[in-house]
């Protein structure tokens, strides 16, 4: 399993791909074509899934911290 930072880097990389597609279409003065829209939606779906994993791992860290603090009392 990856670390939270690694997952966030994956998200950053995927979002760069979507931005690059947008930039290409803008430079070519056109809208995205169907295949680009499909790919962009797949990328965004992946980003949302990774983000769920990140949220879960962050929650786990918060709970672990809370439990450690309670043990110290």
What does this structure look like?
The protein has 73 residues and is mainly alpha-helical. The chain has two helices and no strands. It has helices at 4-27, 34-72. Helix 1 packs antiparallel against helix 2 (34-72). 0% of the residues are buried.
Quick synopsis:
By secondary structure, this protein is mostly helical.
What keyword list fits this structure?
73 residues, mainly alpha, rod-shaped
What is the fold's blueprint, element by element?
Layout: H1 4-27, H2 34-72
Helix pairs in contact: 1-2
Query: Helices and strands: which structural class?
Result: mainly alpha
Mean pLDDT: 96
Number of strands: 0
**Which residue ranges are poorly predicted, with pLDDT under 50 across at least 5 consecutive positions?**
none
- By DSSP (H or I, 4+ residues per run), the number of helices equals 2
Share of helical residues? over 70%
What is the terminal-to-terminal distance?
A: 32 Å
Give helix and strand order, one letter per element, not per position.
HH
Question: What is the CA-based Rg, rounded?
Answer: 18 Å
How would a textbook summarize the main sheet? none
